[in-house]
Each structure stands twice: as structure tokens, then as C-alpha cells.
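The instructor's notes for this session suggest beginning with a concrete chain rather than abstract definitions. Hand out the sequence below and ask the class to guess, before any prediction is shown, which regions might be ordered.
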Amino acid sequence: MGLKELLTESLPAGHDFDVLHLQSPPTERPPLAEASDCSPTTIAAQHFFTLSHNAKVFFALQVVVYICIDGASGDRVLFVSKADTNGYCDVRVDVRRTTRALLQFLLSIDPSHYLQRVRRMHIDPAACEGLITPSTGTVDALHILAQRYRTGDLDVRAAADRARYTSFPCPARYTTRLALFTRSEPHYLFAESAQNPAKHVLPGDRLLRWWLASVDDLLVALFDPETDAALLIPGEDPAVTSHYLRQTRFPRWRVGHVFGGSAEDPALARIPHFPDDPKARFLDDLADEGRNPSLRAFWTELAARQEFRLGVVVGVVGAAGLYTGPCARPAPDELLCPSSPADYVHIKHYVTAEEYATTAGASEAHRNLVDCLLLRYGVAMPRVHGAHSTAPHPAPTQDITKRPAVNDLTARCVRKKPRC
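After discussion, reveal the predicted structure:
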């Protein structure tokens, strides 16, 4: 099922919504675990979704997808980086259902989609022969230009592509991993949107339950029954943490994490380095201090950090297993992939650089996106017509059963009048 079909089934019936789906160019990067013994080839691509209604952006979701290749096997990691609303939608939208639809679409993308044209982490020197690069001397550059003029080979785009891009075979077997960190904040992607009284910010415990329910639905519908699913609340008693798992339907939820290893394994070899993640910031501090504590010590020290001691419930949610749902490459009209990371960031900033204290920010962001897509790429923002209808709850029927008449045995009794 494609992106439009999934959103059609999740958005309210009778209303039109504009959808933006950006994807950054797949790029080779260092392994997620910096001090790991093995160094799998790692490719990353970021997805950014927005939804607009009545020409106002009101929802955004950012997810980073990693493809980690280690021989014939590999991992596909979906890290839910940020999700936010701003309260400027004029109709009631089931945000959880919509978020689940977007994650379901990302899970359905064939990993080979990310491996056909990958930006190299380092330009291949062997492929730079005949190209002028920043390290090329003046005399050599003149010789190269003269050679091109003599041969008439003035189009060097193919050679430049070979130096900058590569491709990788898709692993035959791969494990799909979901990872996210829950923490309630006034805003994540819509700056100043907390000033809108219509914005609903969930407290930490309810936000954690919200995400647990979303991931749980995906596990039940799209993953093998043997998939491992875990929740960890740093610094919290396991009995309290397990209380959050009581309402889940997937049978293999447990208290803990899905990063593997024993409690005494070094943290730098196990904990992935995700962007904008408190765990990653702690990993950076450990690297600066030259320390590599065990996983047990890592979680203990993490709970003692300032951002975890503010009385807000935070959760580390993860799952790892075999994805059993449909899998295909996305259609060309289902995403926009700019040619460079800088272009991707430029378009995304039309949303994230706005201020949303008033509805003007939401309208301006939508107008800028429409103009950018039309003028730079010659495409219109895709539109989805919602078809999801919520059946109204039946009104409680009034009990009109006639009560039996009370037989008053004293109604016909003759009472004696009191004597004068």
C-alpha cells in the first residue's frame, strides 16, 4: 500500500490535506556504535514529512533510516527522531493513527532503495583522474583543461558521479530495528508553537504510553511473533516500568533495551549514536573524558544526568526482529529527494525555521513549501483526500421499562378520627 493510500485511510473523511515527503540523499557514514569490534558499512537517509490543512502546516515527523551491511546480512534501523504538532489544524485528526501510517510506509520501503546511489563518505581518489578538485595544482588543472579541449570531452558529470557516488548490494537477510526516545517538550519541530492555546502537549507518562501503543500496533501487524521489544526508563524501578507494558498486545515486550550484549559489555561498543539523542550526547561526553563504562554503569549514570532528573518520565523504546509486511521501492511521486544534503536542509528549513506563536507561521511555511516545489522542481505538493470516519458512539438507550405499581395496602383503610 502506497503513501497516499495509507494516509487516505488515516485522515478524516471529507477533508483534503497537502503532504510533503522529503528524503535526504543516502550517504555513507561511520558505524552507529563507534567503538564496535565490527565496522559494518552504514548508509543513512533522513525522511521528513509534513501535513497541511487549509494551507497551514500542522504536523511534522522526522525519521532517520540506517542500512548497516555486514557481508550477506545486515540491519535496517528506523530511528524516530522528532514528531510535533502545532495546534493549527481546523479539523480533528487522529495523530497517532497518522503517525502509524507514516511509519508503516517507511517500513514498507525496500532497503535496496537506499543502496543504488550512495554519496561516498570520502571521494574515491582513483576515480578523480581527469577531474579538477580542490587539491589539484594550477599546472595540472591547466593540463586537464587542455586535454578536454583536444578530445572534445567537456562533459565530466559521469566521471564526477563515479568519484562521489557508489552502490552496494542489498543483504539477503536483515533485521529491522525500531528505536525512539520519548520525552515531553513544548515543541520539537514547530518553534514557539507552545504559545498556541490549542496545542495539546502530552505529559511524559501519557506520551510514553502514546508511543508504546503506536509501536505495539506495528509489531502486532507487521513483525514476526519472535521479535524482541523492550522499554527502559532510566533510573526507574523495573516493576514501575513494567506497569507501562500492561496494555500492550504484542506478547514479547520486556523491561530492558534491544542494543544487545551483557550488562558488563562496554557501552561505546553497544549504544548507537543517533542524532539529537540524549544517549548520544552522553556518549560524546564519555569519549571526551576517555571513559568507556559498562552498559550497567551507562544506564545508571545516564539517569543521573540533569535532563533525566527534572521529574519528567522519559522512555527508551526499541524493537528488533523480522519484518513480515509488504516491501517495495517507493513510487517517484511518493517522495522528493533533493540532489544534495544542503538542498534537503534548505527545503526543511521552510518548516523548522518558522515561528509558530500565531497561525501566520503555519500559513507562511505552507506558502513557502508550495512556491519552492513549484519553482525549483516543477511539481505541486501532493494532496490526499481523507476517508477515515469515526463511528459515533451510540447514545445510551433510556430505560423506559414501566415500573410495577406499588400496592399500597393502607389506601382503603378507614382511620379512626381522634376523639375531641
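Then share the key points. Residues 395-420 have pLDDT under 50 and may be disordered. The radius of gyration is 29 Å.
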